[in-house]
Design goal:
By secondary structure, the protein is mainly alpha-helical. Helix content is about 70%, strand content about 0%. The model has no long low-confidence stretch (mean pLDDT about 85).
Length: about 150
Amino acid sequence: MAKMISYGDNLFFVGELVRVLKDGLQLDLDPSIFAEKLVEQILFVDHTLTKIYAALKGNPLLIDRPEHLKSLMRTSKLTADLLDGLLRERFALSEELRPLYPKLADIRDEKRNTVQEIQTILAQSDSSESGDMISPAEYEFLLMDPTSDQQPSP
């Protein structure tokens, strides 16, 4: 039996987690207590977003896929911005994480690439959907009563 995944809820939770991390980094936290947990959370967010993206990318017929992709794009951008702040040493804990800068930069770049890929996917789906639209005249013709003698209006 297939398990139903609530992409919206998952993305909301991850987005809130990133916001909490960003807000927490504004504080003067003790690196000996919080640095390891921060890295753990960043890796969790990275893994989760990558997993959700792979699932959405591989399922083009998913209901509400464009909305989920937009939410994923926002959350990925938020994550990339958080990592950029760490790498630019805008937070007190940034200095403590210097040995991890190459890994954090890779994650940031991956999230930026994800944003660009999603923009491309959304643009392609918008252009392909425009060809499937039914004009008002076509609707009128389709909904016309076949027993009626009325002609569709021009």
